[in-house]
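Lab meeting minutes (informal)
Scribe: AK
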Amino acid sequence: MNYGIRKLSNRTKLVAAALALALAGVSHAQTQVGGGATLPSIGYVGSAAASNLQVWGTSSTNTSDPLDTHSLFGAWQALTGNPNVSYCLTGSGAGKDILAGGSIGGTSYNVQNNCVKNSAGTVTGFGAGLTGVNRTDLTQPNFAAGDSPLAFSDYSNYLATHGNSDYPTQFPAVAGAVAIAFNLVDDQGTPVTTANFTDAQLCNIFSGVDNNWSDSDLSGAFTLPATHTVNQAIKVAYRSDGSGTTFSFSNHLAFACSGTASAHFVTDQAFTNVDSLFKTFPVTGWLPASGNAAVAAAIQNNEASIGYVETANALATAPSISIATVNGKSPTANFSSSLTIAASDLAFNSVINGANATNGQAVVSTISSLITGSQTAPSTQCIALVQPSTYAVPGTIVPSTSYPIVAISYLFGNVHGNGTDLTNTRSLLEAPYNSTIQASATDIGGSTGLQYLTLGLRSFTAAQVGNCLVD
């Protein structure tokens, strides 16, 4: 199968190959620059992701937040002898925008922009030129990451900057459990440290049907000492940025919630405020936060709060916040084995195209059915989307014995424009499927809340991921 279109003549290819060999030493030393999703960030770069916006390098170049050798990118670097990796925690939405580059919604995105939040809480660059990263030569990221697949708007944004015959690549890399974390103290000052929420209770909390911890249907969620009560307004911490964690959480709720409450949950990616996800109802006292680590901090700093947050970030904040079970399942103890992706779970060259207005479930459409004007759709299988319905609730990709709220996290690349980084970037994007690297990268697997993917028959191969990058 031909996974990429090689547009250069044989003579040009030979010249380019010779030049690549001549520059091999330079290329080998170049840092791979990317960023995006915060959900898998601790697994990708290590525990420093819980407190730093950008993580890169080794102890010799970056003493404040070096890559953890037990993280995916750290293990890749250590085991292959390849260059450093810089990862900027922008959130999934901004990560895709930086991958696309250019002006999007009136904001300019560029890999060279600093990895800092602007006044709106948005990060518009991956900090490629930062001292220690030293990639002022880059005009596009080497890679990006997102906890939701490309939407058609993301695809269109990419084409607008790169050209109508140029495409991003997308493959699922890891799975993550989205934890329900809370901070609750009863009326006599005793911390409530354990809770078991049902889907029905979560539907009521996150739709605003329940707005006080004393609401009768929540009484079974936790056991209080005799004569103790909880009578406080519920404060919901939520992602205010373009968030793949929000996509995955609302994906679960859209399938799990029944009746009128289900209409509150819209599975889409462009979340700029709470109303975009939960439609309209009183949200006084709710807590907006940008990034999983910020959501965990918001819960930590606000009594009577609850929120959805990637498990590793919640664990990094424990015991200041507590992690609930959902339907009796734990995001660590009951999310302890890799998830298998089968061919039937995948849609190639398809994107998210909004949400069903009735039930909030994500709509998946082929790119060819959506393109307009001079836009073109790829003919190669280099954009692989895991159908959100297959991991929304246990039973397909997620075993029936597993924790039920799951995200699938993707790595994105560029078909073209990789230059002298081509070999290194191919290798990096294949790292999640490398068994040797998996064995060393223990920040993913076990009870971390993050899991590797097992590629089922005829799904895709690691070589396919790399071969999609052609120049």
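Next up, CB showed the second protein from the same session:
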Amino acid sequence: MEIIKTAIEGVVIIEPRLFKDDRGYFFESFSQREFTEKVRKVDFVQDNESKSSYGVLRGLHFQKPPYAQSKLVRVIKGSVLDVAVDIRKGSPTFGEHVSVELTEENHRQFFIPRGFAHGFVVLTEEVIFQYKCDNFYAPQCEGALAWDDPALKIDWRVPADKIILSGKDQHHERLEEAGWLFDYNENLY
């Protein structure tokens, strides 16, 4: 696997090595040993999958300690714009984001460490999205930011009138209003 560093330390894009022939392709989608050597030591405990249609936006979500989560995300079918926002107070990149297009063709994966809000929007008619988490889901520790917070300057690449949100995702606070954020100087692992 090739690790592509982003503008925010710790947030990386992973490009697998594909083996193609006339039968199709093969690639190793995850290796604990290689991930630990090239990215960081993380013990994933849960795999999730979702199916969504064009314009569905899920996010910007995170979990607070003691259930903070890292995520390793990828697309099986279709295409998404995936976004990680640094919400660690005191970080030199606080409030900044990294976005990457994940598609069934590029097979890229995106690693979002603890201390980041995460979201994605569907760019194709349908998407199947998979991700690994290094902590279990804990509803009492849920947190989220408004997807359309102008301070975040995220170009979701889907017109606002085509965005489809869950009832819950329609009412999140903006970064400046957030009463709880991560501390950059705290070890989240």
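CB comment: The CA atoms of residues 146 and 171 lie 7 Å apart.
No objections, moving on.
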